[in-house]
Design goal:
205 residues, alpha/beta, six-stranded mixed β-sheet, five-stranded mixed β-sheet, binds zinc ion
């Protein structure tokens, strides 16, 4: 098992969406996986930011919407192992309903992913030198997860600010998710859209 070293984070995003690369040296985790049919853009951005594709040990989608997971299968085909939290498993095959033929979406195969529980995720991340955990944080979608690193960085996908919850029920889920992130020591939010911000800007009831 490699020693856990301080991680670095770069953004390889495009089309107003952040795709975060968390690196422990040359051992890397890609969080959120691009739009369908944009492999060329993703590969060009990875190259520009100095991230060799073969150093990406896992790709993880914060949730299975096409701007976050649309490129997952194409990335698998060029060598990226796909890490899936068990709470997300059912959402994978449902995603294609939201794609159009012209999107060029390649269906995600289900039998060759690395499926882990939240409890198992710490060991999986440790294996690639990253100290942290993957937790379910529903509110934007039932399958939404966040990655919380021990250094306080939290990658939250589309989890909305409390004030933006669309209804009472999702508001409760959003509150619970933010509370969990706070309990896990999250201090810095790396969202899928918009700038990095401190967690304490989030009003938590
Ligand atoms: Zn979404």
């Amino acid at each position: 098992m490699p020693p856990v070293v301080p991680v670095t984070v770069v953004n390889v995003g495009y089309r107003s969406t952040n795709y975060w690369v968390v690196s422990a040296g040359t051992s890397r985790l890609l969080i959120d996986l691009g739009y369908p049919g944009t492999l060329g853009t993703m590969l060009a951005n990875l190259k520009r930011m100095g991230v060799p594709l073969q150093e990406i040990r896992f790709g993880l989608a914060t949730h299975y919407h096409i701007d976050h997971a649309g490129l997952a299968q194409e990335l698998k085909q060029v060598g990226m192992p796909l890490l899936v939290l068990d709470a997300q498993a059912d959402a994978i095959s449902a995603m294609k309903r939201w794609t159009k033929p012209e999107d060029g979406y390649v269906d995600i195969t289900l039998d060759d992913n690395i499926v882990v529980s939240s409890a198992e995720s710490r060991v999986r991340l440790e294996q690639i030198g990253i100290a942290g955990v993957i937790v379910p944080t529903p509110g934007h979608s039932p399958d939404s997860v966040s990655v919380v690193l021990d250094d306080g960085s939290a990658f939250t996908g589309d989890l909305p600010p409390r004030a933006c919850a669309v209804d009472e029920e999702s508001g409760r889920l959003v509150d619970a998710s933010w509370r969990l992130l706070q309990q896990l020591g999250a201090t810095r939010i790396f969202p899928a859209h918009g700038p990095v911000r401190p967690l304490d800007t989030e009003p938590i009831i």
